[in-house]
Amino acid sequence: MSEYRFLPHIRDPSAIKAFSHDELAELAQEMRHAICGQVAKSGGHLAPNLGVVELTIALHRVFDFSHDRLLFDVGHQCYPHKLLTGRFDMLPRLRQSEGMAGFPEPRESEYDLFSVGHAGTGISTAVGMARGDQLNGETDRNVVALVGDSSIVNGLAMEGLNNAGTLKRQFLVVLNDNGMSIGKPQGALAGYFDKIRISERYDSLKQRAHEVLKKLPAGQYMEELYHRFGEMTKAALAHQHLFEHFGLLCIGPIDGHDLPSLIEMLEEVKKIDHPVLLHVKTVKGKGFDFSSDDPTTFHSPKPFRREGCRVELKSGGRSFTAAYADAMADVMNRDDKVIAVTAGMPDGTGVADLIKKFPERALDVGIAEEHAVDMCAGMAKTGLKPFVTIYSTFLQRAVDQCFQEVALQGLPVRFCMDRAGLVGGDGAVHHGFMDVAMLRSLPGMTLMAAMDEANLVAALEFMRTHDAGPSALRYPRDEVPEPAPADEVAPFELGRATLLAEGADAAILAYGFPANHALVAREQLKTRGYSVAVYDARFAKPVDLELIRELVATGIPILTVEDHHENGGFGTCVIEACNEHGLPTQAIHRLGLPDKWIYQGGRGEQQRLAGIDAGGIARKLTEVLEAPARATATPIGDRARPTPALNRKLGA
Ligand SMILES: Cc1ncc(C[n+]2csc(CCOP(=O)(O)OP(=O)(O)O)c2C)c(N)n1
Questions:
Q1: Annotated catalytic, 281?
Q2: Catalytic pick among 95, 141, 281, 397
Q3: pLDDT in tens, 387-411
C-alpha cells in the first residue's frame, strides 16, 4: 500500500480539477513529502520545488497545459509539475539515467516544452510560442511563463519582457518571488522586490486600482480592461509596479501559498487578453524548517539524512571547487590586484569563501554572465587581474563578451571554468562540453586544464602572471584525485605538456582531468603487454608542438583524450597544429565526447557511456594498436572524380 492517497493515481492534471480545497491542501502535503524524501536519497533541487507546490497546483488546476503552454525559467522548480503530469512513478530515479530528469524534459512528457536549465529563457520562448500560436490561428491556447525573482533580472529575461509587453493577446508571466537566488539575490532589483510586500490589503489596493490604471502606458485600453476585470484582480493590481513600464499589467504581490486565493486569481487573470505579470510571494524551502531556514544549503543538496530535527548532509571528498577556493585565497593574499567574480554561483564556484575573506575584491553580480565578463574587461583595463569564476556551461552566455570586450582588446581577463566536462545528475543542460571549441578561435587566448589539485594551483599561479592576453582554465565537477595538495608539480609553462608516465608502444596525450583515467588505462594496457606513455597536455592553446613533433617522429600511435566534445576540442587542436606544420596525422587518434547528447546520470556512468573512462581509453588504444596496418593509398572514389561537365570546363 502506498503511503500516499493521491499521488500514485494522478495520471495527468485533469485528476485534480474536481479536488476540494482540502484535498488540494492534502495533495500539497504529499508532494512536499515525496519530493523531500526523494531528494534526501538522490540529491537534487529541494528548496526551489518546495516553494512552488501550491503555485504549481493552482496553475494546473486553472489551465490545461495539455493544450495551453507552460514555460519554465531555469526549470529547477519543475518537480511538482512532474508529479502532477503523471511522473510520480519516475521519481525514485530522479536525476538518474533512464529516470526523471531534474529539469523539464520533452522526451519525458508532452507537458514539458523545452529542455532547459539555464536562467532567463522562459519569457522569450513563451513569447515565441504566443506569437506562433497566434499566427497559426490557435488563439485559444493560453501561454504562461514561470520565472523566479533572481532569474527575471537576467538580461535575456529583460529582453523577453521588453518584447512581451507588445503582445496583443493573453500572456501571463508568473513571477515567483521568494527573495532568494541560490544565495542572497544581488543588485538593485533584489532590493526593489524586497520592498514590495503583500502588506497591502486587497481593499486598499482596490481603491487605488483606478488611479493606477490611468497611469499605465496603454492608457485608454487599460481603462477598458479595468471595467472587465473581476473584483479580485482589480483589488490586486499593483501600485506602480516596475514592470508596468514594460507594458505589462502588473498584479500582486499575492501570497503564493494561499491555494484558494491563487486559484481564484489565476481564473480571473486567465481571461485578460493582454500581457500580465502576476507577482507571487513564496517561501523558498516551505514545509520543512531545515530547508526554509537555510534555502541556500538546501537549494540543491547532496543526499542527506533526517533524524527528527537533525539533518546531516552526506559528506563527499575534497572537490575541485574547494581546491580552487583555497588556491585562489592564497593567490589573492599574495597579489592585491587579483579580483574574483561570480555570476550568481557564489557557493557552486567557491567564490562565497573568497567574498568572506576579501569582501572588497571578491563579488557576486547575480545571474548576469555577460555583465560579469564585461565588468572584468573594464577592471582589466584599469590594471586589475580579474578572475571570472564561472561554470563552463554558463560561460556560453558570454561568448560575445569574450570575443569583443576581452580578446579583441587583448585584455588579460582570467576565466576559471568549473564543471567542465560531464556533470552527472544535472544532465545535458549543464555539461561543460564546448568551452575549448568556443574560445580557441579567439586570437591571443590561452587555454588550460587542470588534472588535479597541484596542477590547479600551478595553473592559477601561471594565470596570475600571464598578462599577455586572456586565459582560461577548465576543471571538472569532481573530487580532486589523491594524492593531494602538497604534491609538487612543475610550474605551468606556456604551451608545455608534462610527462606523467613513460612508454614505448603508444602515447596518450590527455587534456586535464582525463589524464587520471589515462594512467589507469595504462596499467590495464600493461597487463595486455603494451607499454604506453601518458602526458598531461596542460595546454590546448597553444599545444606543445615540440612534444607532438617528437611523438609523431617515433611513428607510434598517439591518442588524444579529453572530456570535451571531440569536434573542435583538444584533439582537433593537435591535428590542426600538425597540419599547419606539415606533420603527418595518420598516427593521431582522438577520443572525446561523442556527437550526441548525454543525459542525466552518474558522472562515472556518463564517462563510461562516452568511452572516456579508463576502460574506454584502454579499449580505444587496443583497437588502434591491434588494427591491421592501413593501406597507404586508397583508390579515388566516384564522388571525388571530376564530372564530365567539370572536365569540359577545365578543358580536360
Ligand atoms: C544562465 C544561468 N546562470 C546561472 C544559473 C544557476 N542557477 C540555477 S537556479 C539559480 C537561482 C535562480 O533563482 P530564482 O530564479 O530566484 O529561483 P529560485 O531558485 O529562488 O526559486 C541559479 C543562479 C543558471 N541556471 N543559468
A1: no
A2: 397
A3: 999 999 999 999 999 999 999 999 9
